[in-house]
Amino acid sequence: MEKNTVRFPAALxxxxxxxxxxxxCDKLYMIAIICSDAVSAIVPFVPIWFSARxxxxxxxxxxxxxxxxxxTLTLIVTGLSALLQFCLKRLADARSETAELNRETxxxxxxxxxxxxxMDKQSVHDLRTQIRQDEDWNGLGFEFVxxxxxxxxxxxxGIISAIALTTGLFSAPIPESAEQFRILTSPLFPIALMAIMxxxxxxxxxxxxxxxTLMMERSKLNKLSNLMWTYFSTxxxxxxxxxxxxxxxxxIVKHYFKQGLTDSYGIRGPFARLTKGKAGILNxxxxxxxVIFTGSIYVFTCLKALSGAxxxxxxxxxxxAATTLSGNLKRLFDLFAYTKLNAAYLERIYEFLNIPNTMYxxxxxxxxxxxxxxxxxxxxxxxxxxxxxxxxxxxxxxSFKIGSRxxxxxxxxxxxxxxxxxxxxxxxxxxxxxxxxxxxxxxxxYHEYMDLFSVVFQDYKLLSQPLAxxxxxxxxxxxxxxVKALNDAGFTERLxxxxxxxxxxxxxxxxxxxxxxxxxxxxMIAIARALYKDAPFLILDEPTAxxxxxxxxEIYSQLDQIVNDRTAIYISHRLSSCRFCDEILVFDHGHVxxxxxxxxxxxxQNGKYHELWNAQAQYYAKPEGC
Length: 626
What we know:
This protein is α/β, with parallel strands linked by helices. It has a domain at about 375-450 and about 570-620: P-loop containing nucleotide triphosphate hydrolases (Rossmann fold). The protein is built from 23 helices and ten strands. It has helices at about 10-25, 25-40, 45-60, 65-115, 115-120, 120-140, 140-170, 190-220, 225-235, 240-245, 250-265, 270-275, 280-305, 310-355, 415-425, 445-450, 465-470, 480-490, 490-495, 520-535, 550-560, 600-605, 610-615, and strands at about 375-385, 395-400, 405-410, 430-435, 440, 455, 535-540, 565-570, 585-590, 590-595. It has a six-stranded mixed sheet with strand order 6-7-8-3-9-10, sandwiched between helices. Strands 2-1-4-5 form a four-stranded antiparallel sheet, with helices on one face. The longest helix is centred in the N-terminal third of the chain and has 50 residues, at about 65-115.
């Protein structure tokens, strides 16, 4: 953990901004916390005040009816206040999980709305992971802001309540018969006590913060601890179970977990050494300082009671209130120090939330053409990904004929998927331009332009939601269109077997009622999703990788009939889609090195396409007798 250099005014500003964001996420939760904490802060003083009245009566006239009155009132008021405290705390606890999820939407919405070029950066994902780790491991960030607010509110109300109950300690007059105690009425005594209290509270807060900083620095540097929890969670991660079972990896997991548990959290681990060493000493001093103030109050109260200024009940009230005052002051100053400490983590949060959108969104509308007359041209386009100097595409110039079938082929890393990302304007090129009907695509409204494309990406994802919702991308959908899209994608027979038809939930994250689909079936659903959108451009980026070559060729043949007047772009390592395409673009190391029809390119014996085709042709020939 880097050293915190944020000054308190800046830290407080960050804290207030975070409070505003948290309030917007869940107002009911914050109201519940305010009410719960206000009552929780006052409740401890209720028995103190009533007990003092009862003790005064017991030490004085001992009137039976008065004693029973105070006993009854003590029981009733204490019981009702405890019940109210419990109910409000239950309300706050009930809302806490929802509030945490609502806070998570801040990050979800940021991811959704940020430029894709930023969302695709590893550094951005690392930043988000670090923010989540800050909260999960140390309770810092937004999580601490809620705790800080709650504790601060309780401390302030507790301090006000304690002061209200201790005013008589200093104002109670000393009888004339106790002249030797007259010095206790000097205004220097309360001033001295307040000075001691303030000094002790400040020192205690600083020591606590230093101890906490040491522990957090250790957790940040403790790689073995991180490794331990990573291996511990492996058993519950989807997709790891079969590998763990088949290769008996549980022994590896247990080894690292036990090693991490012993070396990180054992009696000889770094946390134990800190607790027994510097951090332990700092915490010990921090906890011992308030005892000095409490002891001073005890001495002052007892001397004044000895003088006859007040009775034994008031002694109980003043000592109890002063002790509670000391605890609340210590906590308040601890929180001031923690607020400064937490500022570095809030800065990290707002570093993420403040990532600017720099991609120009455009203003021109994309004309909704019934004839789908859209012409795309790449004009000397070059592109490299952020945070790298390697060109993914270099001097690419191609154009698409309306309604054509285009195959994009090449080996891994040749630039095929990058080409599609630029076409869909997930990224903008550093050099050259991409034109739609002769106009630079950056001038079109960003979202309207993206509506022109239906894409099945190589690493597509389906949601653990009903099948129809996955296809339509919405809770509201046209049932007939969904069924047609699934049928066109080859999902007909599987659809008939589903227990709840279109309402069948995919996967089991949300219950055992969900179904598991194979890789091939999942790809069919992804293709159906692209067909349902019915955009002018249909792009399939390795959409059939989970299918065998013969089944892949059959799917492509069906798609050729389904595409109709759309412009279709097929990307694949395997070349089964190439025979029926109007044009083939061959990529190699970011360049388009060949283009043309299948028959033309396969005859160029020195060409890359000829090499790729002959390496794969055996897979597309059906065995004799089939």
